[in-house]
Every structure is written in C-alpha cells, then in structure tokens.
Amino acid sequence: MQSTLEQRNIDIVRNFCADWSKCSNQALLPYFTEDAVYHNMPWAPLKGHQAIGDFLAPFWSMLDSITFDVLNIAANGAVIFTERVDYFRFKNGGKLDLPVNGVFELNAEGKITQWREYWDLADWIKQGGPAG
C-alpha cells in the first residue's frame, strides 16, 4: 500500500514525464531544486538549473516531439523508479525509441533533488542520437 507521500511523488514524476512533450526548459526546470543533480548515464552528472538547462536546450530545436511512455512506476518514500520508453521525433525525419530506467529523489516540497537515467548509449547512437 502506498502512502500519501508516495502517491504525491508518483503523480509529480508522472506530470514531469508528461511535460517533456512541451519541449521547453520553462516547463521542466521548475520541477527541480536549484541544486538538483541530473545524471544522464553514461555522461557526467549535471548540477543545478543552469547546467541542466544548458544540456536540455539544444534538443528543443532538433525535436518535433518527445514522449515519455511510463510502462511501470513505483515509489519507496521519496524515491520513484520508472521504466519507460522515450520516443524522440526529430525535425530531420529521424526517430529514436529508447528504453530507459529513471530514478528520481524528491524533497519534502515535491521538487526533484536527484534524477538518474539508465539507458544504452550504443542503442542511442545506433538509432541516430547525438554521441554527446
């Protein structure tokens, strides 16, 4: 049985995943604490709004759309685990369907303090994704 806090955290992460379809830093950065850490494995971790925003911004001009399909989601207190397929559709006609496991840690205010993404870089590159 999930606690009220766990259900709130699941709802926040579901909303965050849905808001990727807006393709904008303005839609996504408010979910994070100012000093949040985003570790998009296998790349180096990013800390804070500026670093996270600088990493995300170049994608918006390349994308027609992005959809996070949450297949499974679970909570253990402040930690939320997602199993997803992320669908990238690029303006150049390319498409990329990437299986991802994401782990989120939320604070008492419901902001993301840590976000770790696990996926296969070889699969990303094979499908045409930028190498870094």
From TrEMBL:
Coiled coil: none annotated. It comes from the Bacteria. It holds the Pfam family LEH. Residues 9-127 form the Limonene-1,2-epoxide hydrolase domain. SUPFAM superfamilies: NTF2-like. InterPro entries: LEH, NTF2-like_dom_sf. This is Limonene-1,2-epoxide hydrolase domain-containing protein. It comes from Rugosibacter aromaticivorans.
